[in-house]
Amino acid sequence: MRRSRIAVLAAAAITACFLAAPTVARAQPKPGQAMVRVAHFSPDASYVDVYMVSLNRKQLFPNVFYKSVSAYWAVAAGPFTYEVRAAGAAPESAPVIQVKGNLDAGKAYTVAAVGRRDQLQGLLLRDDMTPSAPGRAKVRFLDAAFELPAVDIAVSGGPVLKSLAFPEPTGYRQVDSGRYRVEVRRSDGDAVLIRGTVAVEPGSVTSVALVGGAGAPRELYAFSDAAGSGTAPAGGIRTGAGGTASSSRAPTALVPLLAAGLVALVAAWAVQRRHGRA
After folding, report:
1. pLDDT at 250
2. Which domain covers residue 71, as residue numbers?
3. Total count of domains within the chain
C-alpha cells in the first residue's frame, strides 16, 4: 500500500515538473528583424556572459559554457554589436570579444566565440534556412579547433572539402539524409586527426564544428541550423557531446525542474516512511 502511494506521488511530482516547464517558442522574426544565436567554442575559456548591443545594452545569455549553442533570438535588423564578458563582470567593463556588423532582415546568423582564452575571436556566420531538395539535407563545417594544421574533411559517400583552416567555415553542401562517417585529415598527408559520425534528417540544415585543443579532446560537434522546411530549431542553450550525439536536447530550464521533482519524490518517500513507523 505504501509503495503504491509513493508511486502515485512520484508520478504526480514528475508530471508537475513538465507542466511547470516553460514552453520555448521558435524564433519567428517580424518585418525588420533578423535572427541571431550565440555559440561558445573556446575550450579553455571558463563560462562567459554574452551581451548583445542594439540600441540599449541588454544581457541575453548569462553563464554560457564551452560547446553551448543558444536558440535563435529575434533582434532588430541593421547595425549591431555582440560582446562577451567573463561571467559576473560588470556590463560597463571592457569586453573580451566585440563584433560589429549588419544584420539583414529575415536572415539568420550565428556569432561564435573561438580561439584560446587569451586570443578569443568572434565570428559572424550567415546561416542558411532555405529548405533543401526532398529527401536531402544541407551540411557545413566550421574549423573551431585551434592548434590544428590545415585539414581536409572527407565525408563517406559525400564531398571531400580541401584545406579548411581555423577559423574558417565551409559553404553548405547538399547530401542525402542519413548517417555519415567523417574523417578530418591533414591536408599535407593522410594522417587522420578526428573521426566522427554525423546524422542528418531529411530537409534539415546542420552545422558541424571541429572543436577542441588546449587539453580538450578534438571532436566533431553537430548542431541544427534548421529542423526542416526552413524552421529554426527551438530550445535554450544546448551543450553537446560531440558529432555522434543527437543535436536535439532538452532545454536547460528543465534541469532545475527535474531536480525539484526529485526533491519532491524524496520528500514524499520520507513522509510515507514516517507514517508507516507511526
Report:
1. 32
2. 23-252
3. 1
